[in-house]
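Minutes, project check-in
Item: structure for the 123-residue chain
Input as provided by the requester:
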Amino acid sequence: VQLQASGGGLVQAGGSLRLSCAASGRFSSYTMGWFRQAPGKEREFVATITWRDGYTYYGDSVKGRFTISRDNAKNMMYLQMNTLKPEDTAVYYCAADVNYSGRFYDALSYDYWGQGTQVTVSS
């Protein structure tokens, strides 16, 4: 499984960005997630979307502002980020849980990771 995240950049507070994650393998069978890591901080759960029913779950800090989605036909996952804040600044990673551990908020549950894309939100 190979994952490649893209779409990061520099945006002003209040702005929007859309991240993409291109995946190989049996994408439709994977639970997919987004995590982020700011300098000096631990990797933080952002959002996940399950493989079976497309259920979505979000970290508390992004609820109501971010939307995760997937297109199984294109092997793509997306993260629409609206109303961005300076505290959203981080490297964003996409990840795949191929064993469906159920612990979608735990980075250790994910088996494959993309290389990360930098998101910087200026105040």
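Outcome recorded: The CA atoms of residues 14 and 63 lie 15 Å apart.
No further action items on this chain.
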